[in-house]
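Sample pair:
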Amino acid sequence: MQTEQEIQDAAKAIISFADTYTQNKLGKQNDQSEQESIQSLIDIISSLECLKDQMRMNKSYKSVIRIPKLYQSLSALAIFKIGVILTDEINEQRFMVRHLSGNCLWHTQICGDEQDQTELVRQGYGRMMSITFCTAGGKGEEYDQEIFNVLRCIYGFLHALHYGRNDYGQPSQQPLPLLYPVSLEQIEEEGAIEEIEAQMKTKGNQWSIEHQANLAKSPILNHFIN
């Protein structure tokens, strides 16, 4: 019971924060002080970490994806803008919001069953991954890691939809061929295929982005060849 309450409390905070962020973004409001922004980011990071831990330890991903508006909120925060005009501290906090939000969705991707994957596609998971990937930007190890992680998610998601999943330590999943082209279309619409091709030329990176980009491109090529 306590676990469920913790999930509900974290979800409520995440949804509220995402709603405020979306409204401010649409209205181009920026009247918060820097200190208020930092504190709100610290609070939402705590809620996201709580949700991530509950999903990982208690296999609560199925109940999480069905909480009204939570998936949309996580998707919005997974593409949280990192602006050059912001302070380094705020940018670092925003990057962590992006990372944790994407991580919560990733747990559903790798642990969910066919019904969960169907819901992810219906909610536009391919589009969200593409936007996250195309707006990663920046320099440094943490940004390289984000690019690597999203490429891994794209490959894993498309591969599981096309071939199914029978990996050690993860729930098995039957192929979902009807969802595969839908996800490809979502990815293509956001320009991620061109960005993946650009990353295939990346050299000398400790995260092996070039190799991961080639893996991410392989199911896309297989679709068009077949």
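Residues 33 and 130 are 32 Å apart (CA to CA).
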